[in-house]
Structures are given as C-alpha cells and as structure tokens.
Amino acid sequence: MEDLSAIHPKYIRERIRRGDLVRPTAGLAEGYVQANLAIVPKELAYDFLLFAQRNPKPCPILDVTDIGSPEPKLVAPGADLRFDIPKYRIYKNGELAEEVTDIASYWRDDLVAFLLGCSFSFEGALLKAGVPVRHIEQQCNVPMYITNIDCTPAGRFHGKMVVSMRPVPQHQVVRSVQVTSRFPAVHGAPVHIGDPAVIGIKDITCPDFGDPVLIKPGETPVFWACGVTPQSVAMTTRPELMITHAPGHMFICDIRDEDLAVL
C-alpha cells in the first residue's frame, strides 16, 4: 500500500476529492488531527451542540460550520466537507440509507456540520512511545463497538457510547493511558481497560463498526470513547436526517496533533 503518512492534509484532501483515495484514513498525514463528522439540520443543531458539550469524551468539538456552509473555517480553511472525506453515511429517520463518496446531492442550505475529535489523532504519539497500533499494522480499520454506557441526553439526542479498541501489551497499558491523556480534544484517556463484557461487548471478535484485529497473548484490550457515537445516537433517536463519515474514514485537518496536547 502506498505510504501517505508524510503527505500534507491539503494534498490528501485533494486526492480524496478526486476520488483517488477511498480508504480508512488511519496512518495518513501523520502528525495532523483527524476528525469525525456529524451534519444535522439547523433545527437540531442546538440540541446536538448541547449533546456534544455534555458528552465531551465521545464528542469533543473541534469546529462547527456556519449554517449552510461546508467550509470548516477553524481547522481547514478552504476545505469542503461535501467532498473531502473518503466515504460518508446518510441516515434517514435512524436508518442507514446509503454510503457515498460525496454528499453534494444531499447538501442543503439549512445544514450545520460538526467536526469532532478522533482517536486516530493520538496514534502517532502512541507509536512514538513504542505502543503498537494493531489496525495500522494490519492495514485495516479500527474495531469499534456499541457499549452499554449511556450518554448524557440533550434535547432530541440520547443513546449509547461507541468505543474504539486497541490491544496493548500488558506492560505498556499504563504508558498508553499516559500518552493519550495529553489529548482530551481527541477523546483523551481510555474509558475502559480489560474485560469487554463489563461495558456490554459480547464478542470482541465481532465489532459493530470497522474490522476485527488480532489480540496477541499477553495483550489487554483498551477502549477509548469514539466519535462514531453520533451514529449510534442517530439510530436511537431517529432524526429526519443525519450525515456522518463512514467509520474510519475521517476528515483530515490542517492543525497538528501537538496543537491539541495539554501537557
């Protein structure tokens, strides 16, 4: 597979916009922030903003667009959220209606887009600390699971938290917590370590989103809050329309991971 780890986000987005790059974005433009996407009509935007504010672990806000504008002016001026993500999901009344590679035909003047922090953004720091990232090793999507953890409701929105999982060698679990705690704007420290059944995951080999990954002997599953949570919420609360990224297919911002570090 082509090495795209050192290419600037602007050029990655250009290739995505041309349709040349339809793949999960883990490992792309290393050192730059990646973001989850959730788009809702204006009438639901305040409720969603309040939901994100009340649930900062799964939904840390990086940027909110002006009504009807697809440009994320804070994190990637000049970008276009209708075209610059490899794959999108269209939810209508809580049902997944379609996966598409652009949303030009769905865009409306009343839509508001939210970009939420993504755990792909701290994976470079994990790798630098010597902590393996299995889905990058296996060149697949990160495994994600719907848990039994309730989000704090807000207006129309409520539902269960989604988590992403990375197997970590037992002797490096504490280090993985230390490293990711520096990045609260992209989910921060794990929400659970160890037994997946405690958070409602019945079979760790069958993720709800993404791909299963190998858990080697001596490794512990570590779970981080995930920005796919709005998709779980969409299926629960059934808004008329919610547009999201396809899991693992993120928006790559122009800001660097270290810009969000707190220590």
Structural topology:
Elements: H1 9-18, E1 32-41, H2 42-54, E2 61-64, E3 88-92, E4 95-100, E5 111-117, H3 123-128, H4 134-137, E6 144-150, E7 160-169, H5 173-181, E8 192-193, E9 219-225, H6 229-237, E10 242-245, E11 251-256
Antiparallel strand pairs: 1-5, 1-10, 1-11, 2-5, 3-4, 3-10, 6-7, 7-9, 8-9
Tell me about this structure.
The chain has 263 residues and is α+β, with helices and mostly antiparallel strands. 19% of the residues lie in helices and 26% in strands. It contains six helices and eleven strands. Strands 1, 2, 3, 4, 5, 10 and 11 form a seven-stranded antiparallel sheet that branches. The chain is globular.
Q: Give the terminus-to-terminus CA distance.
A: 34 Å
Mean pLDDT: 94
Q: If you compute it from the alpha carbons, what radius of gyration comes out, rounded to the nearest whole angstrom?
A: 17 Å
Order of helices and strands: HEHEEEEHHEEHEEHEE
User: Per DSSP, what share of the residues sits in E-state strands of 2 or more residues?
Assistant: 25-35%
Structural class: alpha+beta
Beta strands, count? 11
Q: Which consecutive residue ranges, at least 5 long each, have pLDDT under 50?
A: none
In one word, what is the shape? Answer: globular
**Largest sheet, strands/sense/barrel:** 7 strands, antiparallel
Number of helices: 6
The percent range for helix content is 10-25%
